[in-house]
Specification:
By secondary structure, the chain is mainly alpha-helical. It contains 16 helices and no strands. The chain has helices at residues 23-39, 43-60, 63-80, 83-99, 103-119, 123-140, 143-160, 163-179, 183-199, 203-221, 224-241, 244-260, 264-280, 284-300, 305-322, 325-337. Helix 10 (203-221) runs antiparallel to helix 11 (224-241) and helix 14 (284-300) runs parallel beside helix 16. It is globular, with a radius of gyration of 20 Å. InterPro entries: TPR-like_helical_dom_sf, TPR_rpt.
Length: 346
């Protein structure tokens, strides 16, 4: 049995905030409470309020502000001698590093966060940090290395009845099954995640689960209209909660669904929108995936073959350098799709 979802990153004076609170509201209240704590000379409280500020900035795509905020939160926690708060700040910094495509830094910060969380006796930040490590490996495409960790974290979350963490783990495992072609298993896991998220009132998790369901319905069944309906429902949630990154990934998925349906002009428009959004928030993985979809759509719409070849070759080099294995394989498939021999990446 799962209780109502909660947001453990909203701490100190901000524990009354909901997991569904608008990020704009979180940022405003978090900043106000942070300033109050700083004026009162309470570094422990400043660290915990600063965490919410860092996370709001990160999820809104304010990369530089998020970077400054998590570091300030860490310094305040260190001044207060609060090991658990230091772990939460490092978790935020590691999550931001992954979002920016700095995977070695993400591994380092999240690993430190997990260690400090255990040392500080905070099982939640330890779990979130291990989950961050698992997600980093999954995004890089190293499924063999992190698949077991995902399953372990899912079991722990189920045992504690943590709806939000259970939903996250289910979605991560589902995504790996989807990417390796086990669409039925992926669909079942995304559906379970959507059901748990809805019952627990976790609107963010529900929006991500709907995106996963839409993807599988599109690629497995060709159910274009139903997939677009689910994405429209998720998009409304993303807009209401100011979930910038989730909204951009939603738009990219809309492009994927439209491309598979042969609606190339519409797909092009969705990819262009997503690309602009990802560039605004400096999210290189989303940017690369949107570039790939856009290149494929433009090729279908008659773009010069040499331009398509050059764009895909540049993307392959970019992804090879960044270590995104699954995305690199997607580029290779696109090159074969258009009769272009994948180049050896130098």
């Amino acid at each position: 049995m799962y209780g109502k979802a909660f947001a453990p990153e909203y701490q100190g004076a901000l524990t009354t905030l909901s997991v569904n609170s608008s990020l704009v509201d979180v940022l405003a209240e978090g900043t106000e409470r942070l300033r109050e704590a700083e004026r009162a000379g309470r570094p422990g409280e400043a660290a915990r309020c600063g965490l919410a500020v860092a996370e709001a900035h990160r999820r809104l795509g304010h990369v530089q502000d998020a970077d400054r905020a998590w570091k300030a939160s860490y310094r305040a926690a260190r001044d207060a001698g609060d090991t658990a708060a230091m772990a939460w700040a490092l978790w935020s910094g590691g999550t931001l590093a992954r979002q920016r495509g700095a995977f070695p830094l993400a591994w380092r910060l999240l690993g430190l966060a997990a260690e400090l969380g255990e040392r500080g006796g905070d099982v939640v930040v330890r779990g979130y940090s291990l989950a961050g490590l698992a997600e980093t490996g999954r995004i890089e495409g190293d499924y063999a290395a992190v698949g077991r960790l995902h399953e372990q974290l899912l079991a722990e979350a189920r045992k504690r009845g943590e709806a939000r963490h259970t939903v996250w783990a289910l979605e991560g495992i589902a995504q790996m099954h989807r990417n390796t072609g086990d669409y039925d298993r992926a669909y079942a896991l995304f559906a379970e995640a959507a059901e748990i998220a809805e019952r627990a009132d976790d609107r963010r998790g529900h929006a991500w689960a709907l995106r996963g369901l839409a993807d599988v319905l599109s690629v497995r069944d060709g159910a274009t209209e139903r997939a677009l309906e689910l994405l429209a429902e998720a998009e409304a949630t993303c807009r209401e909660m100011n979930l910038s990154s989730a909204l951009a990934y939603n738009h990219k998925m809309q492009g994927n669904v439209l491309y598979r349906a042969g609606r190339y002009a519409e797909a092009r428009d969705r990819y262009e929108l997503a690309l602009s959004e990802f560039r605004t928030m400096s999210e290189p993985r989303g940017e690369a995936l949107s570039r790939l979809g856009l290149a494929k759509s433009l090729a279908r719409l008659g773009r010069d073959r040499a331009e398509t070849a050059a764009e895909l070759a540049d993307l392959a080099r970019t992804l090879e350098r960044s270590g995104l294995r699954h995305a690199r394989e997607m580029v290779a498939r696109a090159q074969r799709e258009f009769g272009l021999e994948p180049e050896a990446v130098r």
